[in-house]
Amino acid sequence: MKTIDELLAEGVAGKRVFVRADLNVPLDGATITDDGRIRAVLPTVKALADAGAKVVVASHLGRPKGEPDRFGAVHRKHASVFDLPARLPHAAGFLIATEVGVLKQLTEDVKRPYVVALGGSKVSDKLAVIDELLGRADRILIGGGMAFTFLKAKGYEIGASLVQDDQLPVVTEYVERAEKNGVELVVPVDVVAAARFPDLKTKAPSDPVTVDADAIPADLMGLDIGPRTGALYASKLADAGTVFWNGPMGVFEHPDYAEGTKAVAQALVDSPAFTVVGGGDSAAAVRLLGFDENAFGHISTGGGASLEYLEGKTLPGLAALEG
Which residues are within 8 A (CB) of 41 and not within 5 positions of it... i.e. 6 or more apart? Predict the structure, then answer.
């Protein structure tokens, strides 16, 4: 894969250079709530401009169906990602080169124990990567809304918590396979719950209560891992050689349900391991919660792209750059 350093060495002065960037930042109305992806692409743009290139930057915002769009672009077979490199001289920018190097450390040169922390709302979004990690990781910690499908698969009462009943068979199979493969699959032992979803705009207090994960009252929904789980997960991360974290442990945008995510982030900061924060909401969370980005080994800008790489898929954007 040709790099931007090689491109700069060839000379770009006076040339028009098209940069396909991922500037798909989260918005609160018209306000950018996390500018991490913008800052990440600046070194490439600056290097080209300083070398005399006329830089044209293109990106995307949202998805065609209007749903939130928090992913890097290299795993999408878009014209600007896949077709342009087939027609023009091309090279990988600094960000792509760094991301690929980091992901190779998670797949080809892993220092063990290899611990993965997965969160987020839907277990269906993480099934493929869990399937792959059951043959790679030593320990998998489950949090976020997806945890309740795992808890229900274990026969626990989960109250009014988010659950994907259609995924219960595959989750049950994963629990069984983890035990067979010697992979420690860890689920919450307690959760922070409430009678209703909190107001994320006003951040008004929402009367949270902490309950055991195997006996959530019928009228309550789990919205974060509890303090005992946070301490448990920190202990499971303490001896790691490599850590990959993708997905918050709860509704971190509200202070009543941010402690679980904060506990995992702090455990990564305290760890001597090579730590990777896998993009999307996890990256936004560490910044929102006030953590120093430099305290982590790497913060990815491409959550979906990094997951698909770890799943062993061929990413169209990388394939195009290698062509």
Answer: 19, 21, 22, 23, 57, 93, 95
